[in-house]
Specification:
globular, Rossmann fold, single chain, 36% helix
Length: 255
């Protein structure tokens, strides 16, 4: 039976903890804008950058893929209904949020997870009641996790579960490592992740909240959701830190 995720023990996690201790002794700078930070907390991001993130209001986004719009289902979701019952994003993958996610995923800043999860939890509650019984992170590839020393999805999922007071369950596993989705054109992404996940029998009958960092075409997250539903999950919702905007709609950087 799947158990709760154990705390990360990667090298990057140790580096981040060391960085926190160092930050108590020396002035620190914001991970996103580089400006000196007056206080501590915030995962290494200054209050000004957290306040300036290009957030997405749930009432003005597609309810099943979180694409900004008029609050109704977008054209893509009307053509093909996603396997998730609802989707929510903290903000657009642009500007400061894009840099924040980059630091979290690629620069070893796993310490960002609790602060980001706290804001994502608030956005989920704003969207409506959280009906899930457990949080399930979308696992990254083994090779990328070895490079980073941690799994960003697991870190975010564990932190979000703590905020929502839900268990975090490792109900998905990767069956193989494929090419990074970010390296492929949109048309090839779905085929790249087809059959890439295996679900635990523990998903049967459960209402689950799937968690990932970025939603672009939805290929990875939706394949994960299909796998959980095929294993018997009664409902799968999706929460992500960032949703990519439509081409040409990235907001201008605020001062």
């Amino acid at each position: 039976m799947a158990g709760a995720l154990a705390p990360g023990r990667g090298t990057a996690g140790a580096v981040s903890r060391g960085g926190l201790l160092l930050g108590l002794l020396l002035p620190t700078h914001c991970t996103v804008c580089g400006a000196p930070r007056a206080g501590f907390g915030g995962g290494g991001v200054c209050d000004a950058c957290w306040d300036a993130l290009p957030t997405i209001e749930p009432a003005a986004a597609c309810p099943t893929c979180a694409l900004p719009g008029d609050g109704s289902r977008c054209a893509g979701c009307r053509r093909e209904a996603p396997p998730v019952a609802a989707a929510c994003a903290l903000g657009l993958y642009a500007g400061r949020l894009k840099r924040l996610v980059g630091a979290f995923k690629f620069a070893g800043h796993d310490v960002l997870a609790p602060a980001a999860a706290r804001r994502l939890a608030g956005r989920l509650r704003q969207a409506g009641p959280v009906v899930a019984e457990a949080v399930v992170p979308v696992p990254s590839t083994r090779s990328r996790n070895r490079e980073r020393g941690y799994d960003p999805g697991a870190e975010l999922g564990r932190a979000l579960a703590a905020e929502l007071r839900l268990p975090c369950r490792r109900l998905l596993a990767r069956t193989r490592d494929g090419a990074p989705q970010s390296s492929l054109p949109a048309a090839r992404r779905r085929a790249n992740v087809a059959g890439v996940f295996r679900a635990s029998p523990g998903a049967r009958g459960k209402r689950l909240l799937l968690v990932d960092d970025v939603l672009t075409t939805g290929a990875t997250a939706f394949e994960a959701a299909r796998t959980l539903l095929a294993a018997g999950a009664s409902r799968v919702d999706l929460a992500v830190l960032a949703r990519t905007p439509e081409p040409g709609e990235e907001p201008a950087e605020s001062a």
